[in-house]
Amino acid sequence: MDSKDSNQNNLQSKNKINQSKHKAPEIKENLEATQVHKFSPPKKSDDTNQELTKVIDRKALNKKLNKQDAIKAAHRQNLEKRQQANSNTMSEKHHIDGRRTTELPSRRNRKKARPSLESWFKRPTSQTGAEEPSNDSQKKKARSRSKTSSKDTGPSNYSLSQYTAKEKSQMILNIVLGVFGKLLLIALVILLLGGALVGGIGIGYFANLVSDTPPPSREEMAAKINHLEQQSTLYYASGEPIANVRTDIVRSITELEDISPFIIDGLIATEDEHFREHPGVVPKAIIRATIENLLTGSGTGGSTLTQQLVKQQLLTDEVTFFRKANEILLALRVENYFSKDEILTAYLNVASFGRNNNGDNIAGIGKAAEGIFGVKPSEVTLPQAAFLVGLPQAPYNYTPYNQYGHLREDLTDGIERMHEVLFRMYREQKITKEQYEEAKQHDITKDFLPMVPRQEERQSYLYNTIMKGAIEKLMLMKIQADNLSWQEVYQDDDWYNEYYFEAEKQLQLGGYKVYSTIDREIYDQLQVSAQAYNDQIGVTYDGIYTDPETGHETYYVESVQTGMVVIENATGKVLGFVAGTDFENNQIDHAFSMRRSPGSTIKPLAVYGPAIENNLINPATVVPDTAFIEEYEDGSYWAPTNYGNAISNTNITVRRALLRSDNLPAIRVYNDLIQRGVPIIDYLAQMGFNTVDSYTYEDTQNLAFSIGGVTTGPTVFEETRAFTTFANGGKYIEGYFIERIEDAFGNVIFQQDTPAKDVFSEDTNYLMVDMLRDTLSQGTGRTANENLAFTADWIMKTGISEHSKDIWVLGSTPKVTIGSWIGYDSRYQDYTIDVNDGFGLESVRSQIYWAKIVNDLYNLRPDIFGTEQTFQQPESVIQQEIVELTGTLPGTTIVNGQTYNLSGPLKSELFKITNPAPPLTSNFLFGATEEEQYSFWSQQASLEYKLRQQQQQQETTTEDDEETTQEASEEVSEDTSSNDQ
Fold this sequence. Notes:
single chain, elongated, Glyco_trans_51, Penicillin binding protein transpeptidase fold, five-stranded antiparallel sheet, alpha+beta, 25 strands
């Protein structure tokens, strides 16, 4: 039978489903909650793109000039009313740039010459050859007015003492940079206007950066700015689509006249105070950001609202000088073709605003106002407007809601950001001091809407798993690009959420193609088989759970769960998996997210493998199978035992201890590893275990770890892919299920690379393989072997955790590894695989379940098993005859002055050629105490004494028999002689 852990007093080896921090659950599932993160379909209407096109490119969509003029007239009238309404809080309003725009000529009328830098800024002529009016007079008037107002120092009660040290230094820096910025702007204008002439080296280089990029037309820019999202698709390994990626982004299109002046003023004051004046870029802002970055390592940012719109809608995420040059040129070009109002409207409709009160991602100011405060964007108060305006800078750090729509516990960052927006509005004279102080004192948390559960479409284990994997890959790419490690980000909630949601949004809206390794035939068969046999592995419980705090009663159904993963050894590809059997009622991923105690499956990975690798043991090494007690300073103790409390009180070989999966010998070996300082955690890390989640250093320093006592534990995927190390000759090949990711243009942005990592030497590995074969032939895996319908060179390890909460089977052929787990989630009450529940012994039922599914796979795809292949013995492994009792060569040794000669019985065993069978010594017994060593030799002395007595008795008996025979012979001889006479 398989061993069972008994770690009760030292480490909480009780199974624990991973309790994540409050993070995106697709990476760290909180299994205590019944909700899991799901990917909802988009909730915007089909007319969204048409509406936004109307906003951005009104003339292109509406050819009727009369109707357009009427709309613009109404728009200007609304703006004039807004200016009049806010005249008390502004020294002077900047007039809205009302430039008209026209369509560009068709491509066939354009010159085919290589584009010059000048072409990026030159307005195209109409087809008649007349140049379109640019409304330069309007621009000059607006800029002259803005210059007058921008020179105001603010409210009359402003003083430098009101500012913090950081704000003072910022103001001084602004003044200094103002001079340089204006000079640079003049120089830039001169250079741009003279770009066609023989200019300086700098403009030549700048022009060369974009000379191969034709300037986009107005229609092209409008189309890209209008394009809100591109649908991504997930694929099977064959290229068949699994599903299109569904987004949970909620957005709506809002006209500028329907947006509160507080929002518009706050946005401009906070993000781009010179928005109404600049031509798309502010040179001094770029210089300031560069200097601050050089001096402090961080900057306040140098991008205008126009640049931000360009970055979000027209450019990729790469960070290069070429991209920055493109950004600047595109910003100038956008300003040349679109009015300030059109740019502002576009920005407010495409920007992300975090999450709403049912956990949806929201984009656009309309849905932001409705989803956070329950009002229209024209109805927000000043504090509400300031809060909304502050969100786009870091929407998932400032958002008040988590992914479920619950209010976050810590809202400090968002509120501080709101105060910053209010201050900037006050500084820019958009609000009075009284308004500023009143808004700052307002408790914005009282305005937040309460959580409303969202109704969302169910997906599937497969969809969620591939989504999770793709998001992880995109996250990791971004993390590495920022010179950070996964563990650094993983342990910081803010960082983690930021990277997660950025990657999630990138995948949902990027038009990506995600190719998985999943074989559709294998995956589908696994689902059918798991459903068919699920009612043969455990009881379904139900009951009523009463919340101890609220008294609320919940009716629940707790059915036995299963997880299984099939991995191709040579590549690490996941061919298929079972994450559960009832997605409708339980979305917990039991293959890739759930973490449980590994039970005895940890023994070959963390105990026997490292011990053989360090030449501490071999298959013939003899270890005591006797009681073991670990005492602690507080007087408590830990007394583990074997399965069923069956202690043989004998000495057994490592081979036999492993095939029987006895706990006590494994603990003895592991104790020696710890005492010698063997870095077990390094071996585990080399086999793909994430030390943050599955196994920690503290875990590995506890003896209970050797039999599955862990804090969180591995996933089925992690434990299975680690076991492939033995099938791969001691090399670890990372298991994976995302093959590659392509962007919307067909560029491969991620390609899985699986280099092999050396974990165990070839000879160590083969010794482990040969011992793991015995698990099926004569050990705890006999039931699986008896139920397999075909023959292959299998190796196997089974495992049962404490109280039979987790039942494992890991099996490998040279070509494929299949790992299986069964157990209960125990969301409301602890349940175990009970030997008395009518389904038989725990390990027996799990092995029959595993074997039946494997048989079904073999009938479908026998090619994946490699039945014609065998694990090959390397030349570095030899066979020797050793004494079975000691695991050593025959020989003599002296103990306490007495000579012992042990020469048999003999048996054949495998050894490394570099670590052959050892000679007989007095302390050959591995992991034994001095008393146990002494006890062995005492017993041996007693045995030898008894043997000598028996020999002497036999010799005496033989001599007596010989004398009796001689006497009888003599008597017969005398009688014969007498008769003759």
